[in-house]
Amino acid sequence: MGDNLIDDLFIFMLACFIGFEVIRHVSPLLHTPLMSLTNALDAIAVVGAIVLVGEKKSTFATILGTIAIVAATSNVVGGFFITDRMLKMFKSSRPSK
Amino acid sequence: MNQFAGSQYVIEVIYLIASALFIFSLKWMSSPATARHGIWAGEIGMVLAIAGTLLHHGIVDWKWIVVGLVLGSGIGIPLGMVQMTAVPQRTALSHAFGALCVTLVGTAEFYLRTPNVPKFMMSVLSMEVILGGLTFTGSLMAAGKLQEILPQRPITYKGQNLVNFLLFAIAVGSAIYLVLHPEARQFFPLIVGVSLIFGVLLIIPIGGADMPTVISLLNGYAGLSAAAMGFVLQNKLLIIAGALDGSSGLILSVIMSKAMNRSFTNVLFGAFGQVQVAAAGGQEAKPVHSATAEEAAAILSAANKVVIVPGYGMAVAQAQHKVRELYDILSKKGVDVRFAIHPVAGRMPGHMNVLLAEADIPYDRLIEMDEINGDFPQTDVALVIGANDVTNPAARTDTTSPIFGMPILDVDKAHTVMVIKRSMSPGFAGIDNPLYYLPNTLMLFGDAKQFVGAIVRELSGGH
Question: B284-461 has which fold?
Answer without folding.
Answer: Rossmann fold (3.40.50)
